[in-house]
Amino acid sequence: MPNEKLNDIPQWTGRFYNDGVQHEDMFDKLKEECGVFGVYGHDEAASLSYYGLHALQHRGQESAGICVSDGSEFHYHRGMGLVKEVFTNDIMQNLTGPVAIAHVRYSTAGESRVANAQPLVFKYREGDLAIATNGNILNAPEIRKELEREGSIFQTTSDTEVLAHLIARSRHEDMLQALKEGLKQLVGGFAFLILTKERIIAALDPHGLRPLVMGKLGDAVLFASETCAFDMIGAEYVRDVQPGELIIVDKNGIREERFAQQQRKALCAMEYIYFARPDSDIDQINIHLARKRMGRQLAIEGFVDADVVTGVPDSSISAAIGYAEQTGIPYELGLVKNRYVGRTFIQPSQALREQGVKMKLSAVRKVVEGKRVVMIDDSIVRGTTSLRIVNMLREAGAKEVHVRISSPPFSNPCFYGIDTPSREELIASAKTVEEIRKAINADSLHFLSKEGLQEAIGRMDEGINGGHCMACFDNDYPTKTGDFSKQMISRV
């Protein structure tokens, strides 16, 4: 079998690797969506939000922001970079008040610039308004064009701003009625946190595509994209926000309403496979345990005799452990991730650039040398990542490399908040499993079946796919997509 060299694989060409979002990730992984966090009724709302964002940092490393209300005015700060880079002690001291919403972002629609960093803050006839969201609004371009024809002036290229304009232009005097009217016009996957001077409102799309949970810390009410944010601050999980639901928290307590009836339940399956942290629970299902079950099911469906099992850090470790437990093949740390490279580093010399993948990932030679290795990964996107890692293992002396993927072939783009390449760039959209195996230089290749994935997750809601969105695998989108793939603005 040919052993392609890493220097045959195109590397980045700019002065900096990952300098902004225009450079292709050397690991060709799906980009995180966004993360939201909210607090009502705590004197240290900004500090809680800061720690909550730290826990959600994996969902977005491009920008971060916190907006706090003291009851009479907003105090907010947003910036490009990681949470620890955006917020200093001096900045945090100015974010005073008991109510806050916060956001970490990786752009899926809208340019990568500070103007698009969230929460977005607006002034309109009823007062101040701040919005943070996780997801993507499919029909935002059409709504935006219509609003601009009617005189609206947009300050950002983010699709989130569309909701603010719909609220501002509503004929309803009551803000909640205006919000409901605006939400009903949106198509897509979205989890909104909306802040006024005196309340927080949480809203989830009618299909429940994006995760959103509610918690409590003493008398304070919290919202977050994942439960790991509650664990970070010692808060208690209360429940998941339901599709089409509106939860209002103010001085009168918690009020539950609806802006739409629940449609086909379609929680994103990739949350369980890749995006969510292993210590998070989604719909009360632990992510680590679900991934272990994926690995076990993968072993049942795609067993291969080997000497060692290893996982691609970090999201595939749980599945690799499950595969090893099911087969009895020892699990070993065959691949090690360098956690101190950072998001941006100066381009090295030509010789080192040709080995660029090793700056973030290394094979443990003494573990894989002379061994038949099963390499577990969560997905294959373009195929470049798998090729690089397979070759790395071979160069470290692996006798055989068998690739097992804990998800079905990823053959369709996501329109609901995950940054994915076009269908033409997805290797599984045009190649058979055997053709992909050859392209990534593996001795064998097996993907987890869609049925096996659904069983491993363990959410067996009534309806299609047990209540999951698996459009990236089966092309069955829960909402109308129309010509969205042609209309997406500045998708990066």
Automatic annotation (TrEMBL):
Query: What's the cofactor?
Result: [4Fe-4S] cluster; Mg(2+)
Gene3D superfamilies on file: 3.40.50.2020, Glutamine Phosphoribosylpyrophosphate, subunit 1, domain 1 (3.60.20.10)
Any one GO MF term held by the record is: amidophosphoribosyltransferase activity
Q: What class of enzyme is it?
A: transferase
Binding residue positions for [4Fe-4S] cluster: C268, C414, C469, C472
Q: Which Pfam families match?
A: GATase_7, Pribosyltran
Q: Where is the Glutamine amidotransferase type-2 domain?
A: 34-252
User: What EC number is given for this enzyme?
Assistant: 2.4.2.14
Q: Catalyzes what?
A: 5-phospho-beta-D-ribosylamine + L-glutamate + diphosphate = 5-phospho-alpha-D-ribose 1-diphosphate + L-glutamine + H2O
Binding residues annotated for Mg(2+), in chain numbering: S315, D377, D378
Q: In which pathway does it act?
A: Purine metabolism; IMP biosynthesis via de novo pathway; N(1)-(5-phospho-D-ribosyl)glycinamide from 5-phospho-alpha-D-ribose 1-diphosphate: step 1/2
Does the record's keyword annotation contain 4Fe-4S?
yes
Q: Could you list this entry's UniProt keywords, alphabetically sorted.
A: 4Fe-4S, Glutamine amidotransferase, Glycosyltransferase, Iron, Iron-sulfur, Magnesium, Metal-binding, Purine biosynthesis, Transferase
This entry's comment on the bound cofactor is: Binds 1 [4Fe-4S] cluster per subunit.
The active site lies at C34
For whether the record's keyword set contains Iron-sulfur, the answer is: yes
- Which HAMAP family does the record cross-reference, listed alphabetically? PurF
Q: What does this protein do?
A: Catalyzes the formation of phosphoribosylamine from phosphoribosylpyrophosphate (PRPP) and glutamine.
Return the similarity comment.
In the C-terminal section; belongs to the purine/pyrimidine phosphoribosyltransferase family.
> What is the protein's name according to its record?
Amidophosphoribosyltransferase
Q: Which organism is it from?
A: Ferviditalea candida
